[in-house]
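Figure S4 source data
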Amino acid sequence: MMTLQIEPIGTVVGGRQEVADDNWGGVESIIRLDPKFPIDVVRGLGEFSHLVVTWHFSKASPEDVALHARSPRNDPRWEPSGTFVHRNHRRPNQLAISFPRLLGADGLDLHVTDLDAVDGTPVYDLAPYFKEMGPRGDVCEPAWPSEMLKDYWAEA
């Protein structure tokens, strides 16, 4: 397999300072794009309500990666499931994808809410969210994600 080397396109500024499992609702932050980019890279972005943001769990350690089945949040109420069933820092590349609401753009500063990444997090890619590119058909999942994430978007 080929190794991919990528560089951040920006950084999360503001919002939460510490990682937390819940209460990400209403957290406002800025995705500050690298000033090496011309302003034209965000032209038209303000017409969209949401973004798709790829970021790195930069506060995690490579030792956090867990390549085995485990209960979500280590809670024995939920059956163990594999690494690629979880959406956390224990994944091999420690990357995440979030769908924050875009509040506005000020030059290369993108003001967002509901981005579940902390201050200083490197951002590796972003794009507008297109409804047509979202899931097709019915979305199915077991009960545990809804149970586990019931307070995820509660107000901070």
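Figure S5 source data
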Amino acid sequence: MMTLDDVLEKWIPYRLQAVEMLQFAWDWTGESSSPRSVDIVVDGQLKVRGNVALIANPMIEAGLIHARALLEFLGLCSVKGQLAQVQKRKNGDIAVEHFSTPQCPLQIVHPDAALAAYPGPKADAENALLAIFELANKGMAHITDNSFSQAWTDQHLDIACRGIPVLLHNHLYAKLGRNIPKAPVAVPDGR
């Protein structure tokens, strides 16, 4: 059974690593419009040869799902195109409100508090987080016609990918007097 310390020390860093890889893969796919090949080499032996999408697409998809899970962990969701608070948890969910300090339990993050962490226009911050929910839900978790409420941009993903670690720091780790642990492996070159 997973403990709260496991969540803090292993699972949140693991999910944050997926968010980092989402941003890396998204940027990587946008570097060139021409097809580029990718080789996967394990212990000096070529195992798979394909194009950039072979690696980037699963990284993007996993990152979106993990980003959504982290936002939901904090108590955020999308309701009718607006950032909202989760109203009810499912049995077995582990969430920010399961953690506490000696002084008080931690609370679900209010959307206004989440948006206040972004130094730019609040509408940009809200749209960035809404992009994660919509792309993860309509683009990954369900088969849909991919008709999105708006055209999500690189900027939306950038704001969300940079903002999610800040939200976790501000509303979980800092309140517990801790730093976010580094994920164990798989940091892209140059980061």
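The longest strand covers residues 45-51. DSSP finds five helices and four strands in the chain.
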